[in-house]
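Reply to dn_fold:

You asked what the input looked like. This is it:
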Amino acid sequence: MKSRLIASVALGAAVLLGSTGCSLISPQATLIQYAPSDGVEVMGTGALKVRNVLIVANEAGTAGNLVAAIVNESNEPQTLDIDVDNGTVTDSIRVPANSTVSLGTSEDEPLLLEGIDAQPGSLLPIYFASGDQGSLAQVPVLDNTLDYLRDLAPTPTPSATR
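and this is what came back:
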């Protein structure tokens, strides 16, 4: 009888350990940082944090609006340089101290990128830099088929009439 009790306890311990032991060495998924949106986060840009970066492109992929939230948590104004053309600064965005610039909202227009070659569904490499720190990000290129992106697509420039 005593041996049956010991066997039952051992079997119960083995089942308990076997069913929960895997989580003992697995990484906790809720601690893994990721961008829970269509855009990406850009790490390594100094005092500025660049969040939810994406491009809403036209059908041909020759122009697109860059949408992002740029957060400055420092007590000094900061400038973010955006380089799409490998060495030529496409644009610079000044972010006041302790504030956020949200490109693509009613307050801040998206940044129009013309002359790009980025079909919707692809990734466009863009270099973001602030101060002496910078980072290359693979920015997703989307189209305007989703309702919340419809107003963010670049509007075609009127062609000259002859």
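The longest strand covers residues 48-57.
Hope that clears it up.
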